[in-house]
Amino acid sequence: MIITRAPFRVSFCGGGSDLPCFYEKYGGCVLSTTIRKYMYLTIHNYFYKDQIVLKYSKTEIVKDYSEIEHKIFKQCLSDFEIKGVEISSMADIPAGTGLGSSSTFTVALLHLLYTYKGDYVSKYKLAKDACEVEIEKLGEPIGKQDQFAAAFGGLKYYEFLPGGFVNVSPIIMTSDSYSKLEENLMMFYLGGTHSASKILKEQSKNITQIKKATVQQKMCNLTRILKDELQKNNVDAMGELLHENWLLKKSLASGISTPIIDDIYDRAIKAGASGGKLLGAGGAGFLLFYVPQDKHTSVREALSNFREMNFEMDNSGASIVQVDRDFV
Question: What is the CATH number of the domain that holds 40?
Fold first, then answer.
């Protein structure tokens, strides 16, 4: 058996600038971290060599790639020409909650299949291949940040250049500042799931409008400022910049926020959070806040109807958890 995993991501600033319609014209940038919540995939040889068994939220047993319902499994297994295997997936967090689950799954699956074939690939290739699968082959109207975050892991600044190349830079901070950032980030689950594709499709269309493109450029400027402030160990700048980024993001597409989400956000701000945002494309999932230490209790009380998810930041990115000797 081989086991791989890839981390889920929390995006702070710049989301949307990783869409091709924007970065091909203006260049884009995103600052994000991955967290110690993972997507796991396992593979082992199946008794019947002409069959494929897939286990996720449902079970599929097929003989031909064309019979596979799960589109990412279907694309990747046919690309690698692998049969006679059983593959299972499991995750610490449900899909559709704004933490990049689809791309995290794709990265972990590609890592699994490359390892099964005996091939070593770089983190950059994993991310690039995942983008090719989701964006080019499957036609998803999504950006590149999730694939690169899942592959590389850690607190990183990503630059999306015209032509498609992505620069990946770590955020360099003192250990005390890193700990402070980790401790002051609070995440609450609102419930529900969303279709990132639907919201991002509208956002992509809107970004072609000059006014919306200007908003996205302002978000990129905030991302650069956040990078500089964190590297100066000014961690408290996170709150205000998250807040400014969220106000801008809400204007990019109709489904990003709702009156209910706005009300919950306002409650947290009144209780002492200095800023926050809804994670992912929008509409449902997790709300993230930056909260000074002395305001944690009041924010928890204000959002007591919602589940708080404690987390730590991850630095490993996509990784191999186990390889039995039969596969070496």
Answer: 3.30.230.10
Predicted local distance difference test score (pLDDT) of residue 194 = 45
- Is there a single domain that holds both residue 214 and residue 269? yes
Do residues 211 and 288 share a domain?
A: yes
Residues 163 and 186 in one domain: no
For residues 277 and 61, give the distance between their C-alpha atoms in angstroms, rounded to a whole number: 41
- Same domain? For 164 and 179 the reply is no
- Alpha-carbon gap, residue 23 to 44, rounded angstroms: 40
pLDDT, average across residues 275-284: 80
Q: Write the CA distances from 113 to 100, 257, 316, integer angstroms.
A: 20, 37, 19
Residue span of the structural domain in which 80 resides: 2-172+320-327
* Cα angle 272, 174, 184; round to 5: 20
Name the DSSP letter for residue 137: I
Looking at the fold, whether 286 and 154 belong to one and the same domain comes out as no
What is the C-alpha to C-alpha distance for residues 157 and 147, in angstroms, rounded to an integer?
14
CATH number reported for the structural domain that contains residue 286 in this entry = 3.30.70.890
Q: What are phi and psi of 114, to 5 degrees?
A: -60, -40
| Residue where the block lists tokens 């590149």 | 144
Please list, in sequence order, all residues whose beta carbon lies within 8 angstroms of the beta carbon of residue 113, skipping any fewer than 6 positions away. 43, 76, 77, 80, 82
pLDDT tens digits, one per residue of 217-236: 999 999 999 999 999 999 99
Residues 297, 225 within the same domain: yes
pLDDT at 73: 98
Structure tokens at 68: 């596979």
Q: What share of the chain is helix, strand, coil (3-state, %, to 5)?
A: 45, 25, 30
What is the number of domains present in the chain?
2
* Alpha helices in the chain, H assignment, sequence order: 20-26, 71-80, 101-116, 123-131, 145-152, 175-184, 196-207, 210-231, 237-249, 259-270, 296-302
